[in-house]
Amino acid sequence: MFRKKKKALVLYHTKTGHTESAAEAVARGLESRKIQTSVKRVADVVPGELADYSMIAVGSPTHGGRPARVVKKFLRGLDKKALKGKTATTFSSYWAIRGKATLRRMKRLLKRRKAKKVLRGVAFKAGAPLSLWKGKDAAEKDLARLEELGRKLAKKA
Hints:
alpha/beta, Rossmann fold, seven-stranded mixed beta sheet, 7 strands
């Protein structure tokens, strides 16, 4: 019998592009393990299409120790069993502090939607206060950590 090919969805929200570059790094890690990967903004994802994927990575900027409203609203709006059987992870950009708090909050939201396993996410420093200007980009070592996150997600799914 043929096994169904694993597919991954990397979804994110961004204003300045930092979280988008992180999403692309996670996708590179997944693709290096031969996982068919789609990268989309949260606003462009229809909840029903999550059924097509076995792995989900969710990225958000940190806003006061919390994920962006659009990300929270999307995750909270999912059916209670929308992620059943899926492996998931998170990633977050932050300017000063509380990036890990954002990861914890997103992890809780993913678990409440019955994700089979939620891997430890990656928080990375980039940006500027209140996203008033682009600010500094993620360091190369952080992009490498994000690629490794994608490889780990592929391995654990």
